[in-house]
Design a protein that fits this description.
Blueprint lengths: L4 H17 L15 H13 L5 H8 L3 H4 L4 H8 L1 H9 L8 H11 L5 H20 L7 H18 L5 H16 L2
The chain binds zinc ion (ZN).
């Protein structure tokens, strides 16, 4: 199965849109990589590791942090990419007006109610985030903080209640490697 031409057009449009919106943003990793590397990696993970071939999921993955981290509005996503994409992006976005600890708790609580598409993106996002915390953590993060980040993703992923797949097995392997490395 592959994408149709009009779907591929929207994938490229999403990359351009996200690149424009995240312009000037940096990740917190050691190299302060451009932020756009992250949504690219999440989409790549879904496509190449998860073998996800659903265009709405891939496009939403590329856009998944635009509501949270940029001035992008839901209406803007809807008019450019359609209401299915905008609703998936909304599902995977935290309410940034809430304090961090509450947002993290709500991610655990909301995980079981997410749509299948949103669950896939959440899982791929957590895979990319723990990869960074294991291999290229933010400069001031202690070992303890990195481990507790891994613990938190485990709670979110458990609550996604997904059946075994290439993506879930990949997450579990990476998590195990992470705990070994951070021992
Ligand atoms: Zn993300």
């Amino acid at each position: 199965m592959s994408l149709r031409t009009n779907e591929i057009s929207l994938v490229f449009k999403a990359f351009s849109f996200a690149a424009e919106k995240h312009i000037g943003h940096r990740k917190r990793d050691q190299k302060s990589s451009p932020y756009i590397n992250h949504p690219i990696k999440v989409a790549d993970t879904l496509w190449n590791i998860g073998e996800v071939r659903d265009a709405i999921t891939i496009i939403s993955a590329i856009l998944h942090d635009t509501l949270e981290h940029t001035d992008t509005t839901l209406r803007e996503l809807g008019s450019n990419f359609g209401s299915e994409v905008s609703s998936v992006v909304k599902e995977v976005s935290d309410d940034m007006s809430l304090p961090e600890q509450l947002r993290k708790r709500l991610q655990i609580e909301h995980a079981p109610q997410l749509s299948e598409r949103a669950k896939l993106i959440k899982l791929a996002d957590k895979i990319c985030n723990i990869h960074d915390k294991i291999h290229s953590p933010p400069k001031n993060w202690s070992l303890k903080k990195r481990k507790s980040y891994l613990d938190w993703t485990k709670e979110v992923v458990n609550n996604l209640q997904m059946k075994d797949s290439k993506l879930t097995l990949y997450y579990e392997r990476l998590l195990k490697q992470g705990y070994e490395k951070l021992k």
